[in-house]
Amino acid sequence: MSRFVDELRAELAAACRAVGRPVQIMEVCGTHTVSIFRNGLRPLLPENLRLVSGPGCPVCVTAQRHIDAALELAARPGVLIATYGDMVRVPGRRGSLERQRAAGAQVRVVNSARSALEMARDNPRQQVVFLGVGFETTAPATAATVLAAERLELDNFSALMCHKLVVPAMAALLDAGDVPLDGFLAPGHVSVIIGAGAYRPIAERYRRPVVVAGFEPDSILRGLVALVRQIASGRAAVENAYSAVVRDEGNRVALDLLERVCVVADTPWRALGVIPRSGLELGPAYRRFDALERFDVHLGEDEDHPACRCGEVITGRVLPADCAAFGRACTPLTPIGPCMVSSEGTCAAWYKYGRGLAERGT
Amino acid sequence: MTQPRATHDHVVLAHGGGGELMGRLIREHIVPRLDNPWLAGLTDGAVVPWSGDAVVFTTDSYVVTPLEFPGGDIGRLAVAGTVNDLAVMGAEPVALSLGLILEEGLPLAVLDRVLDSVAATAREAGIAIASGDTKVIERRTAGSEAAAQMFINTAGVGRRRPGLHLDVARIEPGDAVLVTGPLAEHGLAILSVRAGLEFESTLRSDVAPLSGLLAAVFATGAVVRFVRDATRGGVAGVLADIAAGCGQSVEIDEHAVPLSPTARHAAEMLGLDPLAVANEGKCVLVVAAADVERVLAACRSHPLGRGAAVVGRVTASQPPLVELLTRAGGRRIVQRPYGEDLPRIC
Question: What global pTM score does this model have?
Fold first, then answer.
């Protein structure tokens, strides 16, 4: 593979030279961030190309008020929380799900919404609350599970809906306007669902190129080459560098499912505040499966830790190393913010794969 | 093997009560399976004949769920795990103790299968179960559909081989780093059957006693500096121990790391680093560069070491770190994992 990589590096360097100024590209998704680190790509990039991470790590963008609601639900007697793994360590105002589990709360890690539904079916005396976290990649599974719960007449299954939409967050960043971004590397897996065409408003309205790429190192580099070439020639188009998997129109079945079960809603994001029409809630016909309604839990306000700069990290405003807590007060053992917790988190990736090299000055 | 007259299909609290029922559990289910002269007398302790200059003594407890998984079960794990701790210390394993803690409600058929597996693995490792204990505890998961659990503690003694000097401090720049076969299979196989995380795969745990493989390696007379089985924390954890222990860096070539395509894909899907995933039948060896071919040949001639490979080397680079040369030609550091890595969201 490294021969291909060498060729792509040369192409990337040539494209960057053609731009003739520093270029800043946002990799929107945490899976890209982690792959870039895990494959050691950062040191291979040209000096005037800077990559910043975006709001694409599902755990990291989940608002504090949703974390606190999950903790409140976990404390209710008879409630079992079923969640994807990275959520259990995220600190809320009162501890984390991991600490609540140690204190006796029922918290189970699942890797699919269906597993949560099966837990509800097999434990009829327990109220199973599934934490619906993630972008358009995981939202269709939550929607399908809610439909199945209705069909099976399970009145002990509900979902805490924290699902988010990728494109509105990208637009919100550009609207804020304080982070210079020359283009976006868009995630392959979300794009499988929403389709490459979904990014067209970013290219047309905001004049920023978007390239959809897979997660292998050569795929990432190919995506970066395509982006920088567009920047060099002043173009702003959507390009699909992952066309073996991603179609322009996305996955119609999954999108129909979302349309049938969910409604687009104004949703709170960590550090970005409430972004209009940026999240998914259950539609009126399925509200009874909404955990907040069922347990009469009200979302409070967000009170982020004063030392935590995760919000600035996931919007590309600062790098993890710019945060005073990074690697000192905030480590994977003692995380202050979600970016240090999630395996997809930018700070966790910098800490896990990058800290030592930074210390060595490379 | 005896066929007990089953008056119970499941373990009940009285099985641990010290009375007739407990006696029958031990006489009918446990002792016949583990048949050996040290155990047969059911005395308060085993008298084990001894020779040699030093005893290597270790203990470990096993709490894996589910009890039976692709490629093994808690019984095989409990024997292999402790045998491996002895073997990587350079010892020839001699005897194990077996402490069983059973939750009431455990099907006796499951217990029998686990004990059969304990016996088979002990035979494979050439070790006797010389002493044991059984306790029954109340069901802690009453009312739920969760299966009743059992826990095992094994302690083991082994005879240290003369002439071996295994010590992390003896590792020098230039030494070669080997692993004895494809990585990450135990941890991924367990995840593939864990409630809530199930996924279809052909992954099987690599759980196996490594005493025979390591005996073959030591018999070559090669200069072996250090051996450790790469269990929880995976190879990443062992390499971090090596760098911290000897004050030198370790450089690993990603393309040389043996990994089955199935394990690679499963790890990718779950967002886990294969280097940080547990193995139960693989160890890391650090050997003098001049002896690397001899050690590799000895590993590969043993059924449990056929996939052995040289994955990297010790370097003098400071500060002491573990670095990975990636398949893409990049570099990154490898850190000891925090606790248990958690499967990611998407």
Answer: 0.85
